[in-house]
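Hi everyone,

Forwarding the result from last night's run.
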Amino acid sequence: MSLVTRREFLESTSAALLCGSAFLGGAKLHASPFGLPIGLQLYSVRDLLPKDYAGTLKQVAALGYGEVEAAGYWEHSVQEVRAALDASGLRCPSAHYDLDELKANFEKIAAFNNELGVTYIVCSFPMIKDPSRLKDDSFSTLVQSFTLEDWRWNADQFNKMGEKVKAAGMKFGYHNHTMEFRAQNGILPFEELLRLTDPSLVTIEMDCGWVMVGGGDAVDYLHRYSSRISMLHVKDFKRTDKPASVVEPPPSAELGTGTANYHPIFQAARTANIKHYFVEQESFNMPVLEALKIDANYMKTFKE
């Protein structure tokens, strides 16, 4: 998700619980080049879901998506979410939460997602160990203020959260942005997180788009950390002459129309440990569902 809009969005829905569902047998699931159902991060339809939650899920399924990853729940009950997912033929194996929300509301989050059959609870954004040292409370300051000490503290928090999620019968994961790929004292925070987290407690949902924008190599990570990365985010960006930064990534593009080359990434993913992947588009220059149809069709017709 977009660094700024994700934070704003999740803060505005901090009381909301995210969704999950058991898989419906018989649903038609279009497969990606590495043999998995096409997934959609529901942040992509954040403007549609509050208006018609069940109807939007049906429209998503009609485009060819077979799985969704939750990013806001809008106060629906477990029963309402399950009914909406069942009616659409979708399953929801993963749900996103900021670390601060997980720490504050873990029991409620775990109970809700467990009842729905969610497999992965994913930390969508880390925390600063000592927020009082920030010069202001802007998001720009936040994302540029993570030190190696903060990342090492987050690794410890992830291990502890992983133990709690595992005890609740699910798996804990971390979703990267771009700031993990800005070296500090010759150390990449992304690799430091992998070094310091317990593989039995913390898996990685690698956002391939943010890896590229951050200057990392998704193919290299899939080869080197094949046992650690179990989910992917797939997104594309428009060509621009403006340098990308932690707080100003390139504009979103429909898959196949931008700068991302997924051929080597998907090839590496086929030999890795990928269990799920989710298309995600942050912004749109056309109706949302039209853009997401282009994204889905890209995955359906992808040629090696």
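Residues 134 and 141 are 7 Å apart (CA to CA).

Cheers,
N.
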